[in-house]
TrEMBL record:
Its cofactor is Zn(2+). One of its GO terms (molecular function) is carboxypeptidase activity. Residues 166-263 form the Peptidase M20 dimerisation domain. Keywords: Carboxypeptidase, Hydrolase, Metal-binding, Protease, Zinc. The lineage of its organism: Bacteria, Bacillati, Bacillota, Hydrogenispora. InterPro entries: ArgE/DapE_CS, Bact_exopeptidase_dim_dom, Pept_M20_glutamate_carboxypep, Peptidase_M20, Peptidase_M20_dimer, Peptidase_M20A. Pfam families: M20_dimer (PF07687), Peptidase_M20 (PF01546). This is Glutamate carboxypeptidase. The active site is at 72, 132 (proton acceptor).
Amino acid sequence: MVKKELALLAELVNIDSGTGDREGLQRVAAVLEREVSDLGLSWETLEAGNGSLHYVARRGHGAPLLLIAHLDTVFARGTAAARSFRSAGERALGPGVADCKAGVVTILGALAKLAEVGWPDRELICLFNSDEEIGSPGSREIIERLARGAVAALVVEPADGESLIVARKGIGRFVLRVTGKAAHSGANYSEGCNAVLELAHKIIDIQSLTDLAAGVTLNVGVVQGGQRPNIVPDLAVAEIDLRTVRPGQETRVMAELRRIARECRVPGTRATLSGGITRPPMPASPAGRRLFEEFQKAARGLGFELTACESGGGSDANLVAALGIPVIDGVGPSGGGYHSETEYLEIPSLFRRIDLLAEVLGRPGAFPAAPL
């Protein structure tokens, strides 16, 4: 079993499947279809409104439980050939090995264990989406549709050690574009309208909206403007990241961002704001805590302890939580170096998480009997 699951992980890692790599993602999906078909699950390909493809495996009847893991990575075509799967001691390395191909293998491994010991008396729905790394723009509608009828959802993203994620920050992404009037900075300085100067004022105003005590942060992370030092710049652009911890916090911030865009200090400049909320916040909830406690019971039975943690990043769990559906995240194995050349998976964690997920899925009463 151990060799089979590592071999499966290697097979997946050695296929390039960056977001938008349709051919590579379909190759990964073909491997999954082979595996779940052998276990008796149905397989369905769903095309989102933007043309992206996502995949659903199902088995059983009764109140459905939704499991989610994504197939896409952040790596470009050719990365798998350059840095193919390898193991070094108790670590496995390769593009997307932990985020999130080990999560996919965790689901498949747990399903294989259930096939051996007996399936739970409920429907299991496994969604494998292909655009999580860019905010799930295509699969969001599919996630929400499947989640609305589910008793709970488990998102099999990588874990931080022996932990599960019970809360995540919400995310907003915005682009502020300032236009002015170009002029020669020596001969015609007063005819120019400096877009970079106006943007500088606005950046200070935007950063001042941060409220650390309330858990609200804004980060102007990318700034572009101007062409040459002797030209008064007529264009400046800033990209803004917003993080919140509670529903509703974004309303005030977005109103302030619109005000900042509207009010210009430098005569002759104008600004436009685009973007919005990509991931609503996933606050800790009593229902999520109950899910954590079920995982904790199972973990103790397997000889280890779990801790509940909160994450500043977002995932598909945010989309589920916004619907009021009980959800827990970080069900996948632990690793590190995500989105980098040093990404790794802790191999023992893979097998602990397979055992843990199988134990919880097969445990009577672990999940609500009907959708809340």
